# Entry
Amino acid sequence: MVYTPFYLILFVLLFPFHTFAQNNSTIDAGSTLTATDNTKPWLSPSGEFAFGFSQIQGTNQFLVCIWYAKINERTIVWHANTTSLVPQGSTLRLDADLGLILRDPQGNRLWVTDGFVDKVAYGFLNDTGKFVLSRNDSEVLWDTFAHPTDTLLPTQEMEIGTMLISRRSEANFSLGRFYLRMPDNGNLVLSSKMVPTNSDYDADYYNSQTSDPSNSTNSGYKVIFSEKGSVSILKRNNATQELTPQSVSSVTENYLRLTLNFDGVLTLYRYPKGSAGNLSWIPLWSQPDNICTKITGDKGSGACGYNSVCSIDSNQRPSCNCPRGYSLFDPSDQYGNCKPNYVQTCEEPRKGSSEELFSLIEITDTDWPLSDFEQINPSNKDDCRTACLNDCLCAVAIFRSNSCWKKKLPLSNGRIDTSLDATAFLKVGKGDAPPLTPDPWREFPERKKDQGNLIIAGSTLLGSSVFVNVLLLTALLYGFFFIYKKKIKAFSPTYPSVPSNLQYFSYQCLAEATNQFKEEIGRGGFGIVYKGEMPVGSGNIVAVKKLDRVAHDTDKEFKTEVNVIGQTHHKNLVRLLGYCDEGQHRLLVYEYMQNGTLATFLFNELKPSWSQRTKLALGVAHGLTYLHEECSTQIIHCDIKPQNILLDDYNAARISDFGLAKLLMMNQSRTYTNIRGTKGYVAPEWFRNNQVTVKVDVYSFGVLLMEIIACRRSLEDEEKCGADKAVLADWFTDCFHEKRLELLVEDDAEALSDMETLKRFVMTAIWCIQEDASLRPTMKRVSQMLEGAVEVLVPPLPYPLPSITTYVSLE
# Structure
C-alpha cells in the first residue's frame, strides 16, 4: 500500500498526452481522422456536438461535418463544401500551415481551409457547435460560424455578403437552389437560383423589408441568432427587428437551429434536451407561409421541379408530385423534374391524328402560371380543349374567366391553388389516360380459362358420391399440374444453355413478357429493345433486345460470346440476365435501367451539375477499363456513345451493348473488319482498314468525355452553333490551345470554380482522340488521369494533317 502514490504518479506520466487534449476538446496540429464506420469524432467539452466523418445512410460514403452528438436523429448543422461525398479511407488532417485538409484514399486533396497567414496551433469544438482554428495565443484564424452551410445556431451571426445555401435534397449535401442572403441594401431575402455565384438572382420569395433607401443607418446589417433563441436583424443604428418571437423556447432545455431546408423553407426548430426515444424536430417558426405561390420569378422551375405540381402541407412545407401522365426524371428525387410519358414533336409526321395519339385530362385548381405561349380570348371549355389537343406545342391549357392560356414544355411554377376557379386540360399519351373499367383477367386469358375449368370441376365434385369425388379430385389435380407445368416450363431452361449463370428463355416466354413486343424503349445498330415483365405479373421489369443482324449459322459461336458477356460483373456495366437462341430468334435479356440514356440526361435544357458530369465520366472510364483489362476475356465495345450509356436508379453510368460488336462480326474471318460505330465517335483506323484494338474505344471515349464536359453533341449543325463549333473535337482543341477553357462550359459556375479538374479533363480528352492510336493512353491510364492520380501532360494537336471533319461521313 505504501507504494500506491508512486504507481499513480508513474501511470499519469506514462498516459498519452493526446488523450488529455482530446478530453479538453483541443485538437493539436498533426491530428487526423479517417473515414471508417468506427472512427470516433472530435467532441465538444460537454459532448453536445461532434466533428468528424459521418457515414451517409445506405452508402459507403462519408461527409466531413458537425452534428448533435446526444440525440438519436443524426442532424448535421455544418459540412465541408466538397463537390461530393468522400469514400471510405479518406482522411482529415489538421495541418499547421493550411488548417483542415481533406484527402481521398489516393492522397488527392478534396477540400482545405487555407486562406490565413499564421500557423495553426490547434483546433477546438466548443459547446455552441462552432469549430475554430487558433494560433498559440488563442487568436481565431478560421471558424465554421463564419462559413455556414444551411444552418445557423444560437450565438451565430450572419453578416452582409454571407449566405445560407440549401442542400440538393434531404440526403444530398451538394449545393441546392435556394439561398438566404443579405445584400448590401440590408434586406434579408430568400431566393432561388440554379447556381450560387450569379449576381442576377430570381425574384425574392421572402423579404424582411429592412432596407431604407432614404436612411441607410436604418437598414439591416446582420442577422443575429441570440443565446435566448430568438432571430433578429440588427440595423446599422443598433436597432433590432425581430423575425421570430423573442421567447420562442428555452435554450437551456432545448436544442435550437435555424435551417434553410432543401425545399426552400426557412424554419426554426427545437428538440427537447435529454429526451428518450425517437423524437423529431419541432418547427416553431418558418418563412414563407406558402412557398408554392410565393415564388413568382420568370426563371427557374419554382418550388418544385419542371412539370411538377406543388402543394403545401400543415407545416408550410411543399409537397411535389408529377401530374398524371408524367414521371420523375430521378425516381429518388421527389422534388425534381418530371418528364412526360409521351413523345410529341412538331418536326416529324405523326403516325395518327391527335385524337388517336393523345387525350386531355381535366384537372381543377391547378396551374402553371408561366410557360404561356398563346392566349385565346374569348373562349369556352370545349374550344380550349380542342385548341390544345390539336397544337403540337401545347402541353396543357388553362381555362379561366372565358379565356384559354396554352402552355408549352417545360412547365414551371406548378401549384395547387383553390382560389383559382380554373380548369386545366393536361395532354397525355393515350396509354396514360384514365382507364376504362378494368377487366382483372384481361392480361391473363389462360389463367381465366383455367380458373373457369376449376370452378366447373369443383361444382361437379359437390354433387357426386365420395368415390366419384375421389376419382374426379385425382383427375383435377393431374389436370392442374399439367396446365401449370406448361407455364412454369416457359420460364425454365429447356436445354443446357451456355455454361454460365445466365438464364435461358424460350421465345414464347419473352413474347409474353413483352406483351408481344409491344413497348419499344430503344433501337440501334444491333436491334430493337423492348420493355418486359419477367415473369408476367411479378413487377420485375427487364429490357429485351431483339438482335436482327447476327449471323444465324454460328450457333456455337453465339453461345460462346453470350457466355463471355454473361461473365462480366462490374458496377458500371448493364448486367445480362439471360438469352434466347431459338431458330431465327436471338434475344438478350438485360436488367432494366429506368433513368434512360446519358444522351437524354446530357442534351437537355436542364444541364446536369459539374459534379454529376465528372462522376459519370469516371464511371464510363472505369467500366471500359474493366472490359479492356480486368474481365476474363477482353471485350472491345466498338460503339461507345451517350446512347449506349444508361443511368441506374442513382444516376450512375452503366455501359450497355458491350460484346455485341463481336456478335455482328462472327461470320467474318479476317482481323480487319468492316467499319463499326457511329458518326462522330469513330476512330480514324476504321477508315484505313487497320487492325482494330481497344484504342478505338479510347478514341470514342475521348469524344464522349468532351460531350460530358460541354453538354453538347459531338456534331452540331453549323447554322445552329457556327462553323468553328460544329465539330466538338476541333472546338475543344482550339479552346485548349487558345487557353479559353471557360468557353467550353459557358456559365457553369461549379465547373468554372474547379478549373484544375476542368483542365485535366480537357487534356485527357484530347489525348484520347489522337489520330495516331499509339499515342492514345489505355483506359486504365485514362481513369488515373481523370482522377488526378497521375500527371496529365500537355497533349499535342490530335490531327497533324487533316481535320476530324475528314472522318465524320460515316452514317
In short: The first strand starts at residue 26 and ends at 28.
